[in-house]
Amino acid sequence: MIELRHVIKKFAGRMAVDDLSFTVSPGEIFGLLGHNGAGKSTAIGMMLGQVWPTGGEVRICGHDVQANRRAALQRVGAIFEAPVFYDYLSGFRNLEILSTYTAPTTPARIREVVEWVGLTGREQSKVRTYSHGMRSRLALAQALLPKPELLILDEPSDGLDPEGIHEMRQTILRLQRELGLTILLSSHLLNEVEQLCTRIAVLQKGKKVFEGNVADVKAERGKVALKTRDFAAAEKILRAQKLITATAEDKFITLTEGRSTAEVTQTLVAAGLAVEGIWQHEQTVEDFYLNLIKPPALKN
Amino acid sequence: MFLAQLKNELWKLFGKKRTYIGFGAFLLAQTAMLLAFKYTRWQSDVERLLNGNGYLATEFISVLTVSVVMLIPQIMLLMPLYATLVGGDLVAKEAEDGTLRMILSRPISRLRLLFVKWMAGIIFAMVLVLALGLTAMSFASLMFPWKGMFVFAPGQAFSVFTANEGLIRFMGSLLFMAVNASVMVSVAFMFSCFNMKPAAATILALSFLFVSMVMENIPFFDRYENWFITHHFKCWLLVFKDPAPWLQIAQSEIILFAVSATAFILGAMAFQVRDIKS
């Protein structure tokens, strides 16, 4: 659905996106993470034909965005942070205006979308009277008008209160479940990404530093939490038996390839050390992300 | 689809209050000038001018005469301001507000979008001039009778017409004024397509017009007057010459159309290569 191949973008000599490649398959919810200025919005801009790449190729729905932007964006909806509209016009009029930039849209279709996002009854009010949450729903409505197959969400929860963030998260899940949309989500809210996305890519200073499944990130293969009264003694025994390759924070062990937690437990018990607990460590996306973007000297 | 897009562009343009600043200012200026003409020496000066040239002043101090008297300073001073204000907003305001990014996430080409916006600007210019002309006549008719027309513009025209012929000339002058306003909108629109604030686009367009006017009036540049856009703006007054120099008017109009088209093309080129970011 989305394909970026060796995409580069320079602004006045500054590298904003550096050799970025990734693919988003149909039906996925893909998260794009990175600090401010990491290149997320620039990458999204290139996907939507708003920012011209300096090099590389961006394909959306099978079409090259630069060569055939019209075909590429025909079934794409997008939402940006801090949704802005023509405040002096009604929500319905805003939707009418925005729909004409894609294809003729009937009032019935607009009403259908308004109902889907839960704005029925307020669509004829001027947008200046809308709360932030209502604007977000209107933004979603305009994105859904062209019956999209792909939804690009650039910081959709930006500025929302916790209730609004929860509502947006549920809506995104509903979009995928009920409409089967492919979703690319750029967000600072790592908890949100963890709950929504199936895969993520992390950008740092314009470069992709990670791409993988959220499930893999959380599992952090090989890292096991061990709870025992004497961690130092346990480490000594396990190293002697070549069952582990590393330890961290006096509570984590990294198993040698092919070894299991059962062997670790048996070895420690046989050596007279009580094992109070041993389990596969599941880190949060936040832990993973923060560790990933740390300067090398500070990494575990 | 083009008509639907144009209709929506006009909704956006005429839906916001700042679009009406020009209309409001013109109404105020016209009221002030009408009262000034009626109650100061202005009217008696015009009467003396007519009498001094062998015309019966009472036959020519009329709705049409006063309308043109009111229009001359407004066209020179106020129209550039309000035409460039709206022209400068057309693209730059949407970029500043962030709505342009939302529009450009849709499969409309940049050229098409600009063309629709430009057309909306041209329609605004025409409506502005039409409103200006009609309100001038309406206001003048409150205090003056419907009689012959007298036009005096130093260096451009000194003519008298019957009421019917005067009305035809007046409507013709509105047409050429609309072309002038369209060119002003186009120049501001061009700057608006570059990466700048709406106010900057308006100021640059006004500066361009101001520099053209100043240079045109420097004696040294007399022989180059055809190179200055403001020189061609005067053709709305040439309509009141008797006989009207139609060839000269046609030449000026062609140049103005060319300037307008060039402004659009330059703006479109700049906009096409621009990166639209939040």
Task: Describe, in plain words, how this protein is organized in 3D.
The complex is a heterodimer of chains A (300) and B (278). Chain A has 300 residues and is of the alpha/beta class. Chain A has a domain at 221-281: Alpha-Beta Plaits (2-Layer Sandwich). Helices cover 35% and strands 28% of the residues of chain A. Chain A contains eleven helices and 14 strands. The model of chain A has no long low-confidence stretch (mean pLDDT 88). Chain B has 278 residues and is mainly alpha-helical. Chain B has one domain (2-273). Helices cover 74% and strands 4% of the residues of chain B. Chain B is built from twelve helices and two strands. Chain B has helices at 2-15, 21-39, 41-52, 57-60, 63-97, 99-103, 110-141, 163-192, 198-216, 229-233, 235-238, 246-273; strands at 149-153, 157-161. A two-stranded antiparallel sheet of chain B has the order 1-2. In chain B, a hairpin with a 3-residue loop joins strand 1 (149-153) and strand 2. In chain B, helix 7 (110-141) packs across helix 12 and helix 8 packs across helix 9. Chain B is elongated. The two termini of chain B are 28 Å apart. The model of chain B has no long low-confidence stretch (mean pLDDT 90). At the A-B interface, helix 1, helix 2, strand 6 and helix 3 of A face helix 1 and helix 6 of B.
